From TrEMBL:
<feature type="domain" description="S-Me-THD-like C-terminal">
    <location>
        <begin position="166"/>
        <end position="354"/>
    </location>
</feature>
<dbReference type="Pfam" id="PF20906">
    <property type="entry name" value="S-Me-THD_C"/>
</dbReference>
<dbReference type="InterPro" id="IPR048350">
    <property type="entry name" value="S-Me-THD-like_C"/>
</dbReference>
<dbReference type="Pfam" id="PF06032">
    <property type="entry name" value="S-Me-THD_N"/>
</dbReference>
<dbReference type="InterPro" id="IPR024071">
    <property type="entry name" value="S-Me-THD_C_sf"/>
</dbReference>
<dbReference type="InterPro" id="IPR010318">
    <property type="entry name" value="S-Me-THD_N"/>
</dbReference>
<dbReference type="InterPro" id="IPR027479">
    <property type="entry name" value="S-Me-THD_N_sf"/>
</dbReference>
<protein>
    <recommendedName>
        <fullName>DUF917 domain-containing protein</fullName>
    </recommendedName>
</protein>
<feature type="domain" description="S-Me-THD N-terminal">
    <location>
        <begin position="8"/>
        <end position="163"/>
    </location>
</feature>
Length: 361
C-alpha cells in the first residue's frame, strides 16, 4: 500500500473496526470523515514503518472519549489539524509524518483525514495492533517514549497542551479534560523520531485492515462465513455464535462500560456468552468460563454480513459471531501484561492465549 484513495477507505474502515476489538470508534462515521477529506484534497501517500528516516517527527492522532458520545457529537472537522499545529508550536519543529495511535473504525480513519488535510504522509502502522481504552496502553510506553507534549482540541475551539511526568498521568489528566469537553476530544500525542517509531509501532496495520475488509466483502458476495474466514486469516478461533439477549451499557468517566449477554444458536444452542467491555471487549466468558481475555482481540461480527459490530452499536436481537484473535506478541510479555493484562482491569483470572484456551474447550 503506497497510497489511500477514496475507493480504499470502505475496506480499511471495515477491517480496522475488526482489529479494534469492539472499540476504536464508529467505522461509518470514520469512513465519512476520511472520504470527505480525500475527495476534497486527493489521495494520501502511505509509507511503511521501515522507510522512516531517523530524524523524522512522527505524530499519532486519534479521538479520545466514550464511543457512545462520539457518535452523537462528531468532530467539526478541523480539530486534528489544529492539534498538529499546536504540537509543532510546542516542539518548535514541523511534523513530518502522521500515524494511527490504534486500530479502529474511527481511529484508523481520522489519521487519513489528517494526513490529507496537512499534506503529510501517513505511516502504515499503529501503536497497538488493536484498540485499548487508555492512553498509556501503547507499545511506545513499553519503549519509554513519553506521551507528552500532548494536545487536546474540541469542537468549541478549546486547546489543552499537557506536559506530564509519565504516560499514566497523561491518561488521568486527559481523561478529566475529555469529560469536561463533553466526553470526546481530538488528540495528538506520542511525538517520536523515525528511529523510535521503527521500533515501537506495529507495522502494516492499514494494509492488514484493507485485506480484512476486502475478505469480509468477498465472503458476503460469495455467501461464505466471514467470521470463520477472518479467524483463519489471523490465526484465531471462532468463539461463539448467538443472539444478543441483553446489553447493560453506561457512559462513565469518559468510557463506555458494560456487559452483553448472548444466547447460543446452532452449534452453541443452550450455551451463553458474556462479553465485558470498557470501550473495547475485555473478557469473553462462556457459561462462566473465560474463553478469551485482554490483551487478545475479542471481535464481534454480524452473523449474516460479517460486518464488525462495535460496543456502542451492539443491541438486543443482533445475531452475531464472536471471534478471538491473537494480539501482538509484545503484549504477551511480562511488561505488556502488566500494562494491559486482565489484572490491570480488575480481573482475577490469569492470562492464557486465546488459541490455548480454544484447545482446552
Amino acid at each position: 500500500m503506497n497510497k489511500i484513495d477514496v475507493a480504499d477507505i470502505a475496506d480499511i474502515a471495515k477491517g480496522a473496526a475488526i482489529l479494534g476489538a469492539g472499540g476504536g470508534g464508529d467505522p461509518y462515521l470514520g469512513r465519512l470523515l476520511a472520504e470527505r477529506a480525500v475527495e476534497r484534497i486527493g489521495p494520501v501517500r502511505v509509507v511503511p514503518v521501515s522507510d522512516l528516516p531517523d530524524d523524522a517527527l512522527v505524530l499519532p492522532v486519534a479521538m479520545m472519549g466514550a464511543p457512545t458520545v462520539i457518535v452523537e457529537k462528531p468532530p467539526a472537522g478541523d480539530e486534528l489539524v489544529r492539534a498538529v499545529a499546536a504540537i509543532e508550536g510546542a516542539l518548535g519543529r514541523p511534523v513530518t509524518h502522521i500515524a494511527c495511535l490504534e486500530a479502529g473504525g474511527l481511529n484508523s480513519m481520522t489519521p487519513i483525514a489528517t494526513a490529507a488535510a496537512t499534506g503529510l504522509p501517513l505511516i502504515d502502522g499503529d501503536g497497538m495492533g488493536r484498540a485499548f481504552p487508555e492512553l498509556q496502553m501503547v507499545l511506545p510506553t513499553l519503549d519509554g517514549i513519553p506521551c507528552s507534549p500532548m494536545v487536546m482540541v474540541d469542537e468549541k475551539g478549546n486547546t489543552v497542551v499537557l506536559d506530564t511526568v509519565d504516560n499514566t498521568w497523561a491518561e488521568r489528566l486527559a481523561r478529566g479534560a475529555t469529560v469536561e469537553m463533553g466526553c470526546s476530544a481530538s488528540i495528538a500525542l506520542y511525538p517520536m523520531t523515525g528511529k523510535a517509531a521503527r521500533a515501537a509501532l506495529v507495522p502494516g496495520t492499514l494494509g492488514l485492515a484493507a485485506r480484512l475488509g476486502r475478505l469480509v466483502t468477498e465472503c458476503r458476495a460469495e455467501h461464505r462465513d466471514a467470521a470463520r474466514a477472518v479467524a483463519e486469516e489471523m490465526g484465531g478461533v471462532v468463539l461463539f455464535t448467538g443472539k444478543v439477549v441483553d446489553v447493560a451499557r453506561k457512559t462513565t468517566g469518559g468510557f463506555a462500560r458494560g456487559e452483553a449477554v448472548l444466547a447460543g444458536t446452532g452449534a452453541d444452542d443452550g450455551a451463553a456468552l458474556t462479553l465485558s467491555f470498557q470501550n473495547e471487549h475485555l473478557v469473553a466468558a462462556r457459561d462462566g468460563r473465560v474463553v478469551a481475555s485482554v490483551p487478545d482481540l475479542i471481535c464481534v461480527l454480524d452473523a449474516e454480513t460479517g460486518e464488525p459490530v462495535t460496543t456502542e452499536a451492539m443491541g438486543y436481537g443482533y445475531r452475531v459471531t464472536v471471534v478471538g484473535l491473537p494480539c501482538h506478541s509484545r503484549w504477551r510479555t511480562r511488561e505488556g501484561l502488566a500494562l494491559v493484562g486482565p489484572a490491570y482491569f480488575g480481573y482475577d483470572h490469569p492470562y492464557l492465549p486465546v488459541e490455548h484456551l480454544a484447545r482446552q474447550s
